[in-house]
Amino acid sequence: MPDTTNKTFSKNNSHKLIYLAIIAMMIAIEAIFCFTPLGSIPIGPLVATLAMLPVCMTGVMLGVRAGTVMGFVAGLFSFIVWTFMPPSFMAIAFTPFYKVELGNVTFGGNWWSLVICFVPRILVGTLSGLVYKAIAGKTDKQALKITAAALAGIAGSVINTVGVLGGIALFMHREFSEIYAMSEFGATTVAAVIGATILTNAIPEAVVSGIVTPAAVPIRGLIDKKL
Questions:
Q1: Which of 17, 54, 140, 214 could be a cystine partner for 26, CB 3.0 to 4.6 Å?
Q2: Residue 211 — very low, low, confident or very high, per pLDDT cuts 50/70/90?
Q3: Whole-number Å distance between alpha carbons of 48 and 65
Q4: Measuring CA to CA, which residue among 123, 120, 121, 140 is closest to residue 131?
Q5: Angstrom distance (rounded) from CA 85 to CA 199
Q6: Which of 50, 56, 57, 15 is nearest to 33 (CA)?
Q7: 3 state SS of 221
Q8: What is the Cα–Cα distance from 205 to 136, expressed in whole angstroms?
Q9: How far apart are CA 90 and CA 122, in angstroms?
Q10: pLDDT (0 to 100) of residue 195
Q11: Alpha-carbon distance 67 to 201, whole Å?
Q12: Which are the contacts of 152, defined by CB distance < 8 A and separation ≥ 6?
């Protein structure tokens, strides 16, 4: 009777190595997108950020759990950027450790900032994995897999936008309203800024994510063959 123990052990080790290698690669890409200008691409007058792409692609390639882990990593990198390298006063929405002074008033983030920073990013990976699994399932049809990945990418991008902007509107409306009233934005309302953000960032990001995320499909095919 052939001994299958070593074969099973070898297969499990191969599984873990491939899994860890892909996770490490996606974390490295996430770091590049978060900590360098390569994470933003101009589309005419608009700008799309790429930070959610590795998260969406991980959810498609490795499933819900891995996508959720990558979402946490994205949230952690975002927290680091907004805490130590804040590009604008918007940092108060993502970290409780940043303060901005306008006149004699100091505005700062609170513990809800951590919810806004982490929860939407985590949900990106979770939802991307769930959408791909629900649509593609165990199908062998390549067209359906590509469609599922595109929808997973769009869904991941949208949930991040909804989570962040919704969190700001729910938990930090007063702070942002006062900042806008006291700064060069004048009487601009939080609702107006949210609307402008959707037009200038959210839509192009969702489009880019829907186009690029299907690139994960052939990689997933190679993983399945190896495993």
A1: 54
A2: very high
A3: 26
A4: 123
A5: 25
A6: 50
A7: helix
A8: 23
A9: 20
A10: 66
A11: 22
A12: 56, 59, 60, 127, 128, 129, 131, 132, 135, 213
Q: Is the pLDDT of residue 130 over 70?
A: yes
Above 90 in pLDDT, residue 109? Answer: no
Q: Three-state SS for 107?
A: strand
* H or E element in which residue 127 lies: helix 111-136
What DSSP character marks residue 86? -
Residue 79's pLDDT is what? 96
Other Cβ atoms within 10 Å of 188 Cβ, number: 16
The first and second tokens of residue 199, run together, are 């037009």
Distance of CA 187 to the CA centre of its chain: 31
What element of type H or E holds 29?
helix 5-35
- Which domains are assigned to the chain? 5-226 (1.10.1760.20)
Phi/psi of residue 48, each to 5°?
A: -115, 130
Dihedral in degrees, nearest 10, Cα atoms 213, 216, 217, 218: 140
Residue tagged 């489009």 (tokens): 207
CA distances from 41 to 18, 37, 47, 183, 199 (A): 30, 8, 6, 28, 15
Indicate the pLDDT class of residue 131, thresholds 50, 70 and 90: very high
Which pLDDT value is given to residue 146?
96
